[in-house]
Amino acid sequence: MSSLAAVARPGGAVRGSTLVRSLGLVIGLAVVLVLVTDALGSYQQLQLAQGAYYFAALAGLTVLIGLSGKISLGHGAFMAVGAYTVMLLVGQGWALLPAVAAAAIVSAAIGIPVGIAASRLEGPYLAGATLAFAVGLPALADRFPSLLGGANGLTINPPAVPSFLGANVSLEQWQAWIGCAGALVALFGLYNLVHSGVGRSLRATRDDEIAAALCGLDVARQQTLAFVVSASCAGLAGGLYAAVLNLASPGAFPLTLSLSLLTGVVVGGLGSLAGAAWGAAILVLLPSWTNSLAHSLSLGTNAQGNLPFAIYGLVLIGLMLAWPSGIQGGLGALMRYMSNKRRRG
Amino acid sequence: MKRTYVMAALAAAAALIAGCGSSSSGGGSADTPGVTATSITFGTHQPLTGPAAPGYSEIAPASQAYFDYVNAHGGVFGRKIRLIIKDDGYNPTNTVNVVHQLVLQNNVFGIFEGLGTPTHTKVVGFLNSSKVPDLFVSSGCPCWDNGSTQPETFGWLPNYTIEGKILGQYIKQHLGDQKVGVIYQDDDFGQGGLAGLKDELPASQIVSAQPYQSGTSTLAPQVTAVKASGAKVLVEFTVPIYTAIARLTAFTLDYSPQLVVSSVGSDPITVGKLLSVISKGKASGTALLEGAITDGYLPSVGDTSNPWIALFKKIHDQYDASAPFDGNVEYGMASAYTLVQALQAAGKNLTRQGIVDAIDNDGGMWTGPGLVPYRYTKTEHGGYAGVEMGVIHGGVIVLDGKPLTTDPTAGSAITPYTGTQPAPPASGVPSS
Description:
- The structure holds two protein chains of two kinds.
- By secondary structure, chain A is mostly helical.
- Chain A folds into two domains: about 1-255, no CATH class; about 255-345, no CATH class.
- Chain A has helices at about 1-5, 15-40, 40-70, 75-90, 95-120, 125-135, 140-145, 145-150, 170-195, 195-205, 210-215, 220-245, 255-270, 275-295, 300-320, 325-345, and strands at about 155, 245-250.
- A two-stranded antiparallel sheet of chain A has the order 1-2.
- In chain A, helix 3 packs across helix 13 and helix 4 (about 75-90) packs antiparallel against helix 5.
- Residues about 1-15 of chain A have low confidence and may be disordered.
- Chain B has helices spanning about 1-20, 55, 60-70, 90-105, 115-120, 125-130, 160-175, 190-200, 220-230, 240-250, 270-280, 305-320, 325-345, 350-360; strands at about 40-45, 80-85, 110, 135, 155, 180-185, 205-210, 235, 260, 295, 375, 380-385, 385-395, 395-400, 405, 415.
- Chain B is globular and about 65 Å long.
- In chain B, helix 10 links the parallel strand 8 and strand 9.
- Chain B folds into two domains: about 40-160 and about 300-385, 3-Layer(aba) Sandwich (Rossmann fold); about 160-295, Response regulator (Rossmann fold, 3-Layer(aba) Sandwich), CATH 3.40.50.2300.
- Chain B has 14 helices and 16 strands.
- In chain B, the strands form four sheets. A five-stranded parallel sheet of chain B has the order 2-1-3-4-5, sandwiched between helices.
- The model of chain B is unreliable at about 15-30 (pLDDT under 50).
- Chains A and B meet through helix 2, helix 3, helix 14, helix 15 and helix 16 of A and helix 1, strand 2, helix 4, helix 5 and helix 6 of B.
């Protein structure tokens, strides 16, 4: 978080109000989330925790794509970096909180060379390079089996619920809080970044690189920065993943994870932090819904196993046809339509 | 404006989560989840999709078929057995997710035959700390075999090291001191098997041991290396798809060693089908596997005179006819049979602790479709204690009728098992 806040360049009165607004937002959401977790069952608390780490990854990715115009098909690999960092550090006796913070920092550090490469590549070449990163990185676990646990991966014990919370807070609720706290940190940092001078410079670069360069902006540096920030968010997400699911293994970070992160960003609403929340909800809930739907149809096992993917695909296609700008964009349009109608009477 | 959107979106997301899937099943019995007067609910995680699905996706439906048969015969103490099958695609993230869902939301009594080492190792901690019976894991990893630290978890397959030892002894006795090459999956399965093999064979005899990563699409480097080492015997600790790939690769390299394949990857029907698919029909079924040495702990599917095979075939035809009758289906039914034995032994007043105690105390004495006894005591949770050697002939495994048992400790003796396999009960359902 501190690394994110630091990039928000001092900008006078605007900065102050953004900071206050984002603080209010985060505190408000924290209160809502604490109340909500109380009302949820254990499994829904786990789902909320999963949604929270997806949010951190999606928010970082949506800022990268929406603000810098760069794409990444490799963010699942940054999540893997984060998760393995937490596994190794907790294995060394670190506490969970500093380990998760370290996950964000390590991912950011790895994001620097990838980001420098990304700032020089465009379109399909960038997609290909980041894709290779997503495919190649998890294979490192097989290369160093004694350190990274090979194909079987690593596990840690679930985080203990602090004793001052007493017996009222279950493990799942505690994990949901950890996840949500991490997500809110990402939200706070990114909100301030987007509304800072850096955010404006990034938008200028995205819209016209030559014009931005003529205004004195270092285009490559801006784009690398955006990549590092979003890699750091993905690393944070991976760290939260490790805190919630207590595992890291190559099979847990397949190529499809990177692709579904991109899906979540687009379906939720590209470039919007609220869209990232929608995307996270879709990534967690849609598979579980399609599974229940497929099960309720009492088909053969093969059909039952594959049907959820078909339904998932159809829902995504339907959403994109109906709301090309994602759920958040669609809701915005809907609200505007309603308010116009009301005004006209 | 933006802020209200964020708020609205997050609140809506939270509301969605709160609203979804509150349909918990089971209940009824006040203190034991998943048990009512008329039903017992188990859950399982299986690779119905993804890289491990071919073959393995047949296992849980076959178990379900056996439960359907038991339920049609009155169930266990009047309770019908339900099995909730969840797809995890062999991805540990999904495994953790669906197992939590099964335990916390579906309120299952226990987890049954959860499949895979990299997947199931990630839920053993949760299941044991939540005191949820974790019965008959579908993997031969030695890691299930620890009754003192993981009292809820029971393996079922012969431990991979036990199998490797018996394969090694067979090579020593029947193939002399020929050079041996090994291709093994680089995880607990392959490493455990290789460890067992090394326990029996002198290190100098194993001239090449080549690991591969699950998920790779070629074994050409491994097969080439083994061929170059001059090995006359090729031992494979491979899952069916890689048995097929290794066989085709050896064929194209004109390399024909004596094949020795672990039971995990030797089901001729599954491998034969994969062979013809991968070779686009050029390799016809099981002909390429003729003469391969393998082992088994259940009667061979091809042995139609065996009464257990007759029973399972009858149930398969009635309840699971769309699947081929192969080793995976037999596996699912035999494993389900063991679960019914455990439920019978746990008695009418079924509790989670009760079924664990029943397996700890009586499991070592149960007989059934297995050719060897189980290694179940309070501390040993390892599953079948050995295997029987056999050869693939005419597309079926022909076992040699001499079951062997041992334990996974290095240097411990391999002894013949002299007990005979009983015929199945007339009803096909184990009695209490």
